[in-house]
Amino acid sequence: MSGPSRPPLPGRAWLRTIRSLVLKRLSFLKRLFRDLPRQAKLAYCLLYDPRVPVASKVGVLAALALIVTPFVNLPEWIPVVGEMDVLALSLVATRLFISTAPSEVVEEQERLIRERSSRFDLDVARGERVAVALAHRFGAHKNDMEFVGVALDHPPAVAAERSEGVA
Questions:
Q1: Confidence check: pLDDT of 49 > 80
Q2: Would residue 94 count as lying in a domain?
Q3: 51 occurs within a structural domain
Q4: Which residue in 4, 9, 33, 162 has the fewest CB atoms around it within 10 Å?
Q5: What SS3 class is residue 147?
Q6: Residue 87 burial class via C-beta count within 10 angstroms: exposed 0-12, middle 13-18, buried 19 and up
């Protein structure tokens, strides 16, 4: 004979249990979406810090590469769940990487991030300068800029003036 079975939960208790599970899941998702960008920025800074052991850097890069490759059989065909697994695994990999870094380096990088003078912030600023320089170099001006995949509609007179200027 099998062991004693549990009696079914009464209606209100069942609703409280489901509500509790849903709230826990939502709390986890909120933490995930709040922590992942912050952890990713810190991990980026630590990857470029020479005081962090190379083995830790290789480990996190290998873990992230494994997570994003199509060879990993995550249930991505299930809407939202597959993406959550990838995000959760990415968060775990970055947290493990951060935990293996020397604590004084982590504290310094966190301070630099708060001050907006971290490696990440400097690289973003460099990227913006390069984008602006490329836009100026290739003659893109505010009035002539087009978004990729979105053509500006020019009246026929403007198009004719442009073709005359080319000839």
A1: yes
A2: yes
A3: yes
A4: 4
A5: strand
A6: middle
- Report if residue 4 sits inside a domain: no
3-state secondary structure of 49: coil
Cβ(98)–Cβ(39) below 8 Å? yes
Quick check: 107 pLDDT over 80?
yes
Rounded Cα–Cα distance for residues 37 and 77 (Å): 24
Number of domains in the chain: 1
CA distances in angstroms from 138 to 35, 49, 141, 143, 147, listed in the order given: 39, 35, 9, 14, 15
Domain ranges, residue 28: 11-166
Evaluate if residue 106 carries a pLDDT over 60.
yes
Distance CA 48, CA 66 (A): 21
- In terms of pLDDT, which residue wins out, 25 or 153? 25
Closest of 61, 26, 24, 58 to residue 40, by C-alpha: 61
Beta bridge partners of 147: 150
> Kindly report the CA angle at 31 between 103 and 85, in degrees rounded to 5?
95
What letter represents residue 116's amino acid? R
Where do runs of H (alpha helix) occur along 48-118? 54-68, 81-100, 103-114
